[in-house]
Amino acid sequence: MHQGSCLCRAVRYEVDGPIRQSSHCHCRMCRKFHGAACGTYANLKAARLRIVAGKDVLTAYASSEGVRRSFCSRCGSSLFFEDEREPDVIGVTLGTLDAEPEAKPWAHIFMADKAGWEDVPDDGLRRYEQSYPLDTVPRERS
How far is residue 72's CA from residue 75's CA, in Å, rounded to a whole number? Predict the structure, then answer.
């Protein structure tokens, strides 16, 4: 079981089971949403995520067609990413977990959109100019 929260701890959540994969997204919207060079998300089955506090302050923003980004309306922490193309999957911002996950990120995506001031070192991770093909993503089995 993993636990996580926003900065002010008004929104708290639990993830049942291990975190198996994540990726660094360098798209412009993730940079804006996180206020950083990239956003790092653990993608997992939505059924494994449980909001244990703060549903009333959790706000969702439709950042593009079919995509919702959720954040705490009190402190502004970026928390979740949902894409209607994969309704059973939710992206959890890795930085909001209270403990280190088991798996490290496996890819950098939207490298064509990365900030001009960002130098991404050769870290051995896969790199995609745009999004990764959905069939290449390491998938959860349960």
Answer: 6
Domain boundaries, the chain: 2-116
Angstrom distance (rounded) from CA 16 to CA 118: 34
Residue pLDDT, tens place only, 95-139? 999 998 887 888 898 999 898 899 898 998 889 888 765 555 555
**What predicted TM-score, i.e. pTM, was given to this entire model?**
0.84
Q: Is the separation of the CB atoms in 107 and 128 below 8 Å?
A: yes
CATH of 2-116 among 2.170.150.70, 3.60.15.10, 2.40.10.10, 3.10.20.30? 2.170.150.70
Q: Tokens 């302050």 map to which residue?
A: 57
CA–CA dist 76, 58 (Å, integer): 10
